[in-house]
């Protein structure tokens, strides 16, 4: 047999990396593989919801089609702007000796 020609460590690691999914009852990678879903926001390292922004872009009829990168880029821009405004609003709150940001602090920041 072919596996007698290779060391045990190689064959076992090869088996587990390539065939482990198939032995768990799924038909060659189809069906449930036990993987947890990872959101597009997590993949991009963002706090803003990429999926929701994509839905709004599609539903808003801004264009017939929406590219895959467009909602990610828009979410990143929105997150950056929000962080900038919050930073300045926090500074305004601290200047007024307050621990909580109120609408006036946001207005001063803008």
Structure report:
The chain has 110 residues and is mainly alpha-helical. The chain has a domain at 38-109: Histone, subunit A, CATH 1.10.20.10. The protein is 58% helix and 0% strand. The protein has helices spanning 8-23, 40-44, 50-59, 70-95, 103-109. Helix 3 packs across helix 4 (70-95) and helix 4 packs across helix 5 (103-109). The protein is elongated and about 60 Å long.
Under CATH, the topology of the domain at 38-109 is which?
Histone, subunit A
Gap from first CA to last CA = 73 Å
Largest sheet: none
Beta-strand percent range: under 5%
Question: What is the number of strand segments?
Answer: 0
CATH architectural type of the domain at 38-109: Orthogonal Bundle
How would the global form be characterised?
Answer: elongated
* Helix content range: 55-70%
Quick structural overview:
With 110 residues, the chain is an all-alpha fold.
What tags apply to this protein structure?
single chain; 110 residues; Histone, subunit A
Give the topology, please:
Layout: H1 8-23, H2 40-44, H3 50-59, H4 70-95, H5 103-109
Helix pairs in contact: 3-4, 4-5
Domain Core Histone H2A/H2B/H3: 32-110
GO molecular function: DNA binding; protein heterodimerization activity; structural constituent of chromatin
Family: Belongs to the histone H2A family.
